[in-house]
Amino acid sequence: MNVYVDSTRLQVPTWRGQQLYIYKILMGMAVNETSHEFHLHFDGRERLNRAEPLLKRPRVTPHFASGKIMRHISLPYNMLATGSKVFYRMARETKPLRTPMLGRTVALVLDNGMHMCPDLYGNRNPKAQLAESRRGVHNFDHIITISNTVKQELLHLFDLPDETITVAPPALYHNAAVVEVAAPPGLLPTGRPFILAVNPGSMNKNSQQTLGGFEEYIQNYRDEDTVLILAGDLKHLDSLIRSTIAENPLLRNRVICLGYVTDSEMRYLYKNAQLSLFMSRYEGFGMPLLESMAASLPQIVSNIPVFQEVCGDGPLYVDLDDNAALGHAIHRCNTDSSLRNRMIASGLERVDKYSWETSAVTTLGALVSVAER
Predict the structure, then answer these.
(1) Which of 85, 86, 293, 298 is deepest in the core (most CB within 10 A)?
(2) Is the predicted pLDDT of residue 68 greater than 80, yes or no?
(3) What pLDDT band is residue 183 in, cutting at 50, 70 and 90?
(4) Torsion, Cα of 43, 133, 142, 112 (10° steps)
(5) Predicted pLDDT of residue 329
(6) How many CB atoms lie within 10 A of CB 289?
(7) b or e along 243-258 (b: 16 or more beta carbons within 10 Å of the residue's beta carbon)?
């Protein structure tokens, strides 16, 4: 069977969770499959350096279009030319297709943040956006998503039959437990214990509570040494986060914004942190949760459904906006060795449930099933 895939989301300067997911699933299907061909659609030939190992696989053929018009015209044409029975749009969005496809269609939906939390995602017209997404979702024969939480949201938002949605979760990318650890990031203070918070630069990540809870910890539990590390671009929240830190004498010399970190630096941070904080208001999954668990790193996370699904009973859960509870949870993790050991053991057991190979097989199975209808 031939599969035609919209892979244009790989053509960005910096890969994030979405790009890592797309790449690992495509590579998993291409590496282990001998009876199917994968045709990958790109907008021109730019920014494909990180995808080169995938493009060199024997059963992978890239197709290049240029210009907005040709991008959409060439999709159905190339599907016909390649004899592809199914089109997989790995673009996370639920907007309708601009041109009809000559075959079955499958869409990847990573989250429903625009609909579940419109204010966080800058959705100024949630009713119109939901109506457009409803038209888009119902144009596809099947949906693939990354968590049962997102699946339940889709069922609720769009009245879809349960059998039209497949869950193929992500797995580890930065595995500090098995990959050689590199030198620390240059801004990391030498010899000081640190708490790690990853990807702070989006509203849904709830960095204000992360900072507020750390302030509560400093103020109430007499720790004069531990620092908080914010790893990842601050993006449009840069001025807000930096001003919050600069204007607070308790945080001014205790919070370090690293900005972008390399993969090897990220592994170092996971391996050497005391604990990690993930206080998100909304997520579709949360890949850093798996990476923390694999690195034997205790976690304190917000009490939201998807984190309960991913992590089970491993972390300490804290209610949103309860800074005092977050400060107390940090104190417990840093002082209760039996609690830390339990959290670490639970995390290591939990992370073994996630596998790129399994999710690639699940994805391919869904594509084949749709094509055979």
Answers:
(1) 293
(2) no
(3) low
(4) 90
(5) 98
(6) 26
(7) ebbeeeeebeebbbbb
Say if CB 17 and CB 54 are below 8 A apart: no
Please state, in angstroms and rounded to a whole number, the distance separating the CA atoms of residues 193 and 156.
Answer: 44
Give φ, ψ of 43 to 5 degrees. -90, 90
Instruction: Answer yes or no: are the C-beta atoms of 365 and 25 closer than 8 Å.
Output: no
Residue 133 DSSP SS3: helix
Q: Report yes or no: 307 and 286 within 8 Å, Cβ to Cβ.
A: yes
State the Cα torsion 18-39-353-270 to the nearest 10°.
-40
Residue 229: in which H helix or E strand, if any? strand 227-231
Q: Max alpha carbon distance in the chain (Å)?
A: 68
pLDDT tens-digit readout, 327-343: 999 999 999 999 999 99
